[in-house]
Amino acid sequence: GKDGYRHYMEKELHEHPLVIGQTLQRMVDPASRRVMLPEMPFDLASVPRAVITACGSAFYAGMIGRYWLEDIARLPVDIDVASEMRYRNPPLTAGSLGLLISQSGETADTLAALRSLREKAVHILSVLNVEHSTMARESDVVLGTVAGPEISVASTKAFTAQLTVLACLTIATARARGTLDALGEEELVSALLDLPSRAAEVFTQGAAVRRMAQIVAEARDVLYLGRGSMFPVAMEGALKLKEITYIHAEAYAAGEMKHGPISLIDRTVPIVASAPYTPLFDKTLSNLQEAKARGGRLLVFTDTKGAERVSAIAEDMVVLPHVHDFVAPILQTIPVQMLAYEVAVLKGTDVDQPRNLAKSVTVE
Ligand code: F6R
User: Fold this and answer.
1) pTM above 0.90, yes or no
2) Which of 31, 110, 270, 337 has the fewest other C-beta atoms within 10 Å?
3) Nearest residue by C-alpha to atom 11 in ligand 1
4) How distant, in Å, are the alpha carbons of 26, 156, 218 from that of 338?
5) Does residue 55 line the site of ligand 1, with CB under 6 A?
């Protein structure tokens, strides 16, 4: 049941700290504090490149995975949504890594992409929540997200569990490729192990999220902005809003806004930005200034280190604990999903069963 929550989505949002912790328990050895992945039938050190493919939220998780694998493991990565990857026929060396991400393990587009990658003799590694699924049977290795069953059609906890697995995979790949030493691994693992308690603190910000929701609920269009690994977080926020509130939302890389969508901005188009204090904070803030100068109303998700400067320009903000840059996209996902949920509650839509959507999309 819903355990006293109003909807499954609300219950599942509150499970973020738990599922991040459970997923880490499966992947991090408590004694050595090192990432321990299951035995793989291939060597991560000799993979020449990775191709990531998935649909919807799982695709956004993959985009964050790409930032990590490129930056930390120095692994060349290609990524596309499964329905496009399937027909792209990318040139791939045998022995490359096909990285598939899916909550259900049954999504027809992702399964078709898996099969077309397999024909190219790449190793198939799938990040799946349902471990006895069709994709699981057709993969060389499965890394399980320990999110438990997700009932709400809009994905929430599966997404942060996917990110947790991708973070661990990045650490293991970086170690294998010699781009991360023991000290570096210790730093990243500590940041991950710290996450469940930081994630639990996010829920103390409920009142601030509900204030933002009042503004968003009145809008017809909403623009979501983020840079670097916060760009896919913005995309996740925009998708969730569209899915369950039927408000049109679009995510843009914050720096790309001035190349077009800035013409949309006025008081009626709220701007939701994800701007924690990372090396991209200053750049993001100057993009937000540009939007504000055109009359945009800024609703900003930041952290304790960014709060003072954000408060100088934002109409409202949500302040999260400051965490290591590496795990910031995982933490920042939680309040953007909460925002969509609170807007849906205000609008009175069918949160768990939005119109036209099914939990698992088994047609191409
Ligand atoms: C988003 C959502 C969808 C799914 C997508 C992939 O809230 O629910 O975008 O993320 O259909 O589904 P899976 O992960 O089962 O392959």
Assistant:
1) yes
2) 31
3) 56
4) 26, 9, 17
5) yes
